Amino acid sequence: MTSRPDFDKSTTSEEVVAAFSHRVAGTTILITGVSPNGLGEAMALALASQHPAQLIFTARHIAKADEVAHTIKTNMEAPPSIITLEMDLSSFESVRAAAKSLVEQNIIINTLINNAGVMALPNRTLSVDGHEMHFATNFLGHWLFTNSIRSNMAQGGRIVNVTSGGYMICPIRFHDIDWEGTEALPQEEQPDFGAAKSLGVGSLTSPGDYNGMLAYLHSNAASMLLSVGLTARLKRQGVSTLSAAPGVVVTELQRHIGGFRNATMEYKTPTQGAASLLVAALDPTLQVT
Predict the structure, then answer these.
(1) Which of 28, 126, 218, 289 is the most buried (most CB within 10 A)?
(2) 102 membership: H or E segment, kind and range
(3) Mean pLDDT score across all residues of the chain
(4) Domains of the chain (ranges plus CATH)?
């Protein structure tokens, strides 16, 4: 349980980092998927205000990470050191290159926030390595990157994998990871069609049919298991790994669906959504043992 029960859905990123400023000052924090007007930028701007030693931003298109870095550098009197890295999480080659750069520089990372992702691609798309794009980007890329820089994680560090409640709607399809269309999915691997329909994800007729929103939620379920696995593997380093969901925030991530449009959902601004992720990253009482 968080040490700040007074925080709620209206809490902002700035309020969170101010409350845990001692966990930010002098540390190195890496955020994947940093681009203007998204959760990555909201976290970056808030964290920069509390004197980290270094911020590291990755982006598929480095110009986007550079733009956020420029905003920080031009609007702060004493901005932190910022490194930007180009990393396409859907490409194993790109991920390995970015990780190699960090390892060779021997950069010690206190906090890693795996934030990047793609969502609701309308057509089934394969990555350059032949995997369904949501699974490749949101899970496999982060899995490879995080494991490749394990030696860079500081003793007592923290890893946050950004996810959603999607695991309750679409569990891991171990018999059809890449949505090739098998009709033989075991019952426990089939999506909850009723819950999916309530989200307005479109026409659903068969467990084997590709659906962009379900493929996204499928990758979210995998991210949850990534946290479980990393917690076990990094325990000796004292590194905790948590999963956190920002809530419903309309950002560029939702460009393929125009944002959720469900009257039962409560929307957050980017800084409010990012606040949940920063609590997971910074609150010392959330250590997993």
Answers:
(1) 218
(2) helix 92-104
(3) 90
(4) 13-286 (3.40.50.720)
